[in-house]
Amino acid sequence: MKYINAEEVLPRELLYQIQQYIQGNLIYIPKYDNREKWGEKTGAKRIMFERNNQIISMYENGYNIKEISKKYYLSEHTIRKIINKSR
């Protein structure tokens, strides 16, 4: 990675604002990432969120972990993780 003098690339006003927080030290500016997060484009994230809420609701309504795991074709360990994460 090559270091660049901020005075050469940043507008003077922005440089002044940055100097209010840090002066004379190195600062890393991460690459801008405008990609969508996992599952947002396809709706998979929303579907899993809804499924997990149904699992939690079933558990709170008296279903045991074994019954829930059979209904959703998930391991009992996975069902426990979903339930514990909600607490």
From TrEMBL:
Transmembrane segments: none
Protein origin, superkingdom: Bacteria
Domain Mor transcription activator: 11-87
InterPro entries documented for this protein: c-mor_Regulatory_Protein (IPR052411), Homeodomain-like_sf (IPR009057), Mor_transcription_activator (IPR014875), YraL-like (IPR049739)
Pfam family, one: Mor
NCBIfam families the record matches: CD3324_fam (NF040785)
Protein name: CD3324 family protein
Annotated source species: Clostridium aquiflavi
